[in-house]
Amino acid sequence: MQKATIDLVSFPNGGALTRRRLMQGLVAVLAPAAMARKVGAAAQATEVAAYSPAVLPPGIRSRFVNNINGLRMHVLEAGFEDKDRPAVLLLHGFPELAYSWRKVMRPIAAAGYHVIAPDVRGYGRTSGTDVGYDDDLAPFRSLNQVRDMLGLVSAFGHRSVAAVIGHDQGSPLAGWCAVVRPDVFRSVVMMSAPFGGPPALPFNTADAAPGAAANAPADTIYDELAALSPPRKHYQRYYTTREANQNMWHATQGIHAFLRAYYHMKSADWKQNKPAPLAARTASEWAKLPRYYVMDLDKGMAETVAAEMPTAAEIAACKWLPDAELRVYSTEYGRTGFQGGLEGYRTGSSGRFTAEQQLFSGRTIDVPSMFIGGKSDWGVYQNPGALERMQKTVCTRMLGTHLVDGAGHWVQQEQPDEVSKLFVQFLQTGGRA
Q: What is the CATH number of domain 16-198+353-428?
């Protein structure tokens, strides 16, 4: 592994995050984005700069760390003033960024931690977002992304972190970190998406007939979804298709409106979100999920969420994601597209990388662990039985499961005070390995 070097862009960060400061910062965000579009995707990794401090809450800075498993990684950082603090690593999901952690970073830092939140591989201002659909999927496999995180922690001079915390796609990545290197990732918090653990190896098969494993029944649930009336499809399957990136990146309503509707529909603001456990992994049970999870067969995600676009009054009333903050996301994804983030769904569905994951078959997460979700988040239940397996089998030191009132899928943004409190309690008590 190359020696990592840190390229620091530091700014004075005093004062409140006023609307004026945020809008001034967005000018700095938008300018390099426009430049990158002009010079082409191949140059975007070298053209983008760190965020202006006006975009971020005081006490958080934007920087780059070079030579992280082949990447120049963009990182948000808090609690960096003191060199001997234990570290906490925050891993975002889709379609999010390191910026998604902005509301919880300072409370964690105030509790005495060095907080590190990267744009993970394929996202934001980390290099390599110019990935194409036909490019090699191997860099996005789970174990290589664990290597990314190991390299980043090491680059900052930490032998270990007090906790790795992951949301959405970041949840299984955090889980894999704890499975593979429990000596480095000394506790783990998984959010919104329960982690299923390593895949199983065939067991006690010495007397099985030749070819028995190859004759395992095929997964027919996607055909069964398509046979429903109206025909349906699962969003994760859709996210593996060639058209998914173009559909969202070049949404008819525009990328900002697309993201507004997507975030709204998966939040507690969308009152139809009343999740409950599903009885089984069947098409009839999955059909109970909202359309953003089990879509109409003939629609892309842009069309799916457009029907639930919030009104101007609802947007103005959205305190957890004001329009200026949403602009940070729409600017970044307008520049990069979504393919880098979608690669994670494709590696999970391809089956190509199961063999290397089976090296850890039978391993459990033995460091202290916790799960956090929103009470209005269907993501907790979309894989029937996954939450219970994580609590009872995958994690041997599960210290708590918390479903937060007033939050949907974006729990750390919708209810940051409650989530920050849960983080700090975990770190200061049960989360100490």
A: 3.40.50.1820
Domain span(s) for CATH 3.40.50.1820 in the chain: 16-198+353-428
CB 375 within 8 A of CB 409: no
Residue that is written with structure tokens 């479903």 in the block: 403
Residue with token string 């120049």: 72
Proportion of the chain above pLDDT 70, given as a percent: 87
Residue with tokens 């065939």, as numbered in its chain = 202
Q: What is the per-residue burial (b if ≥16 Cβ within 10 Å, else e) of 327-350?
A: bbbbbbbbbbbbbbbbbbbbbbee
- Residue 196 is encoded by which pair of tokens? 């299923």
Closest CA to 292 of 314, 307, 313: 307
The encoded tokens of residue 55 equal 């975009």
Residues of the chain with pLDDT under 70: 1-47, 212-216, 349-350, 431-433
pLDDT at residue 43, rounded to an integer: 41
The C-alpha angle 266, 330, 323, rounded to 5 degrees, equals 70
CA 158 – CA 150 distance, rounded (Å): 10
